[in-house]
Amino acid sequence: MLALVQRVSEAHVVVDGQTLGRIGHGLLVLLCAERGDSTTEGERLLAKLLKLRIFSDLEGKMNRSVQDVGGGLLIVSQFTLAADTAGGNRPSFTNAAAPDEGRRLYDEFVHRARQLHPEVQTGEFAAAMQVHLVNDGPVTIPLRIAPPKP
To answer: Which of 28, 42, 84, 102 could, after both became Cys, cross-link 92 (CB 3.0–4.6 A)?
Structure first.
């Protein structure tokens, strides 16, 4: 499972002119399930995400997590994170989970996040979305939790 995590001052997602999810200070999480991923990878990624120390402490060092600072999470599905550009100029998305499986894993990730964190907002799976954000720092961190090798 892949995530691109951005520390934000604010973020919101719009679908068909309507704002679906909005947070202030927190993390925008662009999330992608890959082929072979399971709930286990989602659980591991969420645990890492909630403890990721990318917020400043009183000394200005990145030493606090989203939970430590009481920040929000805006979780947006983005299968294009699985893009493979090695073969040319047109990306291949064959590494992304099939749509039904991607939706299931995304929904499970969001459900579990809501159990563990007080403020969780989302976009809409498979919708054309406009994501608005003010990247704070800027701080952008890629995360990847791969399934075990056979």
So the answer is: 84
* 56, containing H or E segment: strand 55-56
Cβ neighbours, 10 Å, residue 23: 22
User: In whole angstroms, what is the distance from residue 29 CA to residue 54 CA?
Assistant: 13
Interaxial angle between packed helices 99-116 and 39-51, expressed in degrees from 0 to 180 and rounded to the nearest 10: 40
Q: How far is CA 131 from the centre of its chain?
A: 12
Which amino acid makes up residue 58?
L
Q: Domain 2-144: give its CATH architecture.
A: 3-Layer(bba) Sandwich (3.50)
pTM of the predicted model over 0.70: yes
What mean pLDDT value characterizes the chain?
Answer: 96
Query: Is 80 designated active site?
Result: yes
Q: Give the active site residue among 78, 109, 121, 122.
A: 78
Is 79 a known active-site residue? yes
47, pLDDT greater than 90:
yes
Q: Residue 97 has which token pair? A: 């989970």
Query: Residue 23: what pLDDT?
Result: 98
pLDDT on residue 144: 96
Q: Is residue 149 pLDDT above 80, yes or no?
A: no
